[in-house]
Amino acid sequence: MLLCSSLINFWRIDNFREIVVILISCLFLFTIKGIGQVSLLADSIEATTGQTVSIPIKVTGFKDIFSMQFSINWDSTVLDFKEVNGFTEELPQFGKDGIGDGDVDSGQLIVVWFDNSLRGINLEDSTALLILQFQVIGEEGSKSAIRFSDSPALIEIVDATSTILETVSIEGQVAVPDMSTATTYLQAQNGMRLFQNHPNPFRKNTTIKTSFEEAELVLFTITDAQGKVVYKKQFQSSNGINHISLDKHLFPASGIYQYTLQGRNYQLSKQMIFLP
Questions:
Q1: What phi and psi values does residue 42 have, to the nearest 5 degrees?
Q2: Which of 103, 172, 226, 241 is the most buried (most CB within 10 A)?
Q3: Is pLDDT at 3 greater than 70 in this prediction?
Q4: DSSP code, position 197
Q5: Which residues pair with 83 in a beta bridge?
Q6: Which residues are within 8 A (CB) of 232 and not within 5 positions of it... i.e. 6 or more apart?
Q7: Which run of H or E residues covers position 73?
């Protein structure tokens, strides 16, 4: 508003109507947000009590960004925080120094990054910014959301023009199924279902069943235990039951892998085991 006063004094404006127009214009200028949009995404998985799980924190729409800040929250009675790793190397000076003073014992973590060059950084969609490591301590039937929030630190992602961008948060979940009533699938809010691969564990081939209420463009990815993407494919699903067939040659080594199906407003993940 100091700029507005300076403009009024500079032009010696004493017409009340013109002053009001300038003040309204300045107010609009200083409160408008950019039309750009960035999405923060966390995976949804099932796990058993005592299991260590990895939750990649991914981003889309990360274009010409020079700073970001957001909070991650979870239920500390279900998930015991262990560490953060897997920081993307595409963000300069981004690492454990960018993890702020949240209260992990209470289920809070702050992520902060700033590009000293002020040039703005671009990341491919679905890039994992970092990976959260938890040990599951909840009992069967419990679950914890992985949420992005303004507590304890506000969500602010700023581009190279110093514009605060709109942020869309797609929360994840770690669910500990009740084995007496457990289903073999996860379901998104739009009705899409992601089933457990069969067979599992497997040595040669395995198949994943999915079910869609309506056809849509989706992204299917497979990551290893360190969060590295070993397979990625975008495809147009059809209404109803769909099958994804996987061959052993897609997997570089035996171990636990996570497969994820990401649509426009959801992201579901399950784990599978590839045997030698």
A1: -125, 145
A2: 172
A3: no
A4: P
A5: 133
A6: 126, 219, 220, 221, 222
A7: strand 65-73
Q: How far apart are CA 70 and CA 183, in angstroms?
A: 33
**Strands 156-159, 65-73: pairing kind:** antiparallel
Structure token digits, residue 32:
């408008």
Amino acid 224 reads: D
- For residue 231 the two structure tokens come to 């397979």
User: What region does 269 belong to: left with phi over 0, alpha with psi -120 to 50, or beta?
Assistant: beta
Percentage of the chain modeled with pLDDT above 90? 54
Q: Cα angle vertex 183, ends 180, 188, to 5°?
A: 140
Cα–Cα dist 224/110, whole Å = 25
Task: Find where tokens 């729409």 sit.
Answer: 61
> Is 62 exposed, middle or buried, given 0-12, 13-18 or 19+ CB atoms closer than 10 A?
buried
Question: Quick one: tokens of 70?
Answer: 């957001």
How large is the angle between the packed helices 2-10 and 16-31, nearest 10 degrees? 150
Summarised one tens digit per residue, pLDDT across range 184-206 is: 778 888 888 999 998 888 988 99
